[in-house]
What does this fold into?
Amino acid sequence: MTFLEVNDVLGNLELALCLGALCAILWSRSLKQYGYLAALLSGKLLFVAAQWVVLNRREYLQLNARIAYQYDFYIYWTGFAVTSILMLVVICSMYRLAMAPLKGLHTLGMLVFKWVAAISVLVALGSAFAPHITTVSYIVAFVAQMQRTQSILILCLLLFVCFAIRPMGLSYRSRIFGVSLGLGVIATTDMVQSAWVHSVNSDMYGIFSIIGTGAVCLTFATWAVYFALPEPKRRLITLPTTSPFLRWNQISEILGDSPGHVAIGGLPPEMLAPAEIEVMRRASMKMKLSLAGQEQSADAA
Amino acid sequence: MKHLVRAFVVVLALTGAVASTQTSASASARSIASSSMQSNLMPIPTCPPDGSTDCGVCKATGGKNCAQ
It folds into this structure.
């Protein structure tokens, strides 16, 4: 079997497994929770199908090679952008699902996530710029930088989910862990692929395409299995009172609340309600009467 | 089992971190944008889409309807 044949077989297997994972999500009736993951898989299938039609059925569409290439260029890069954005949304949704019982940490994490995303976009915009750079090169450099950032975010999420799985009431059979693990495998593959392409010649890159496709096949198969099998129920979360998770969750819940205000002095009577003035008048009278009573008893003694 | 899963995740993260340093070191020389979420069945279109080239589409699809 030649290299191209192996690549073709793996490519077709990858699409079949992608479809299988999508069907498993639909079959498990978890589309509401994992809708973004389903959208990511659907997007991949849709864009690959569109590219295949434009390149391999261009005669039926009466497109010459140059026009077909123009369509292919825009379909590929639009698909790249859409799937990258969907990957980010999937990371976000996984974090939300994982942190659902700990509202305070969930809010704090989303705040940090938004800041990291905003700073990453600014850094990518700045670092992609170079003197005399063309628009296409600039976009490719920007997308490459964003992809690295996205991969690092995914790996951070996977590490967090893996090591904090117990306080969150999850297990390694939970779908949240399965999806995060698959995303982590894809992120590592992308990072190694970028480093590989930089450091070796293009013939060697061909070998990596087989490894990369194999890793993606493994990911889709993992997702299909996780969604096909019943998910264990989330455990009741019990944490020791000294748990840092509990403490940080309490602190995060308080953060951002509007504070109460205390009047220090210089309070004019017109700022008070009539009922408050009446209460204060009666309290003063009572205090005076009790003082007078104490003086009389002292005199009698 | 727990330790195996944790070890696998740590290996994944370390591999990604090492690859990230390798990419950053040579990123100024050449940028690449490829994603595992894009199928390897389809080639990555890297030529400019200004109508001056078919970027090998004609040859790859059997050489028919290649009007220039």
In short: Chain B has a mean pLDDT of 71. The first helix of chain B runs from residue 2 to 26. Helices of chain B lie at 2-26, 57-60.
